[in-house]
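We read letters as residues; the fold follows as tokens. Both lines appear below.
***
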Amino acid sequence: MIHRFALALLALTFTTSCKEGSSATFVAPAVIDLGIVEPNVNIPFLFDIANTGTGTLQISDSSTSCSCVVTAHKAFDLEAGARQSISGALRSDWKPGPHKQQIAFKINERSRKVALVDINYETRRLLSFTPDRMILTAAQLREQQTSFDVRFSVDRNAGDLQGVEISSPVDFLEIVRPTWSGAEGSFTVKVQPDKLPSGEIDFNLACRVKLNDRWIEKPYTIGGRLRDDVKAKPGVLVITSMETGKAVSIAVHPSGALKDCSVSWKSPTAQVVMEPKIEGDKIVVTPVSLANAKVYEYGFISVTGMTSRASSLIVPVYLAIPEGNNALPR
């Protein structure tokens, strides 16, 4: 769910002079209130800025005070009377309690004017799972254990559950429709043995529950190694320093396993784009867009069309880049 904020009555407004005596007026929400969220989760948001003046407004740069990414252009013009949607994603703090971050828009390249938009939210543990994460193994699957139950509950002080939505990013895991009553519920994860990939798995189910007419999101992690028909080295790609356009490679064994295969990138985070391709016995991955963050779980590379017993291969990808790394786009 993306938190959408239109131009509100409580707005940030100021005017700057333009050419030929005209002026541009920058209007944006003064505060973006994300409400109560789970600790350490991605929170996408979207809001509008506008130019209500008669001249052209120049947005020369945008930056943030937190581990979030704003997908505005590096610099863009906003014509008189025009609006522009600004999207972003914030990683909520581990610590409980209220938090405040800011997005800074620099107005006109030669001007020192900066527009600050506040981002407010509160972290509180509202949703918990039992077990807290799931580890699948090849041994379990050989013993025909292909159905796994997960229980979930919410803070009783937060009210009763009004709705639950859970989805899987892969076709070899089926989510049986969840059931719930009061503050507790459960769902079942069913493994489809004929669709199992080779390699490591480590990704999140998209989970959200409705409390007090508001959706609360928290991912549920499933990991493990399912089978070894085809192996990737590294089995999990952890990126600690990378520039956009600079490729890294993953070796695949046995030789020839990638012949006539196709490869794709899958991620729930729109700000991160990777372009994988097959070159011989390697998968070459080129980052096109990276988020400015300390640690995120971004997605996985999927190879399909293999002729071995495993018809596919999965390689999870994590980005773990120290804040302030100059190689990252800001």
Observations:
- Confidence is low (pLDDT under 50) at residues 323-330.
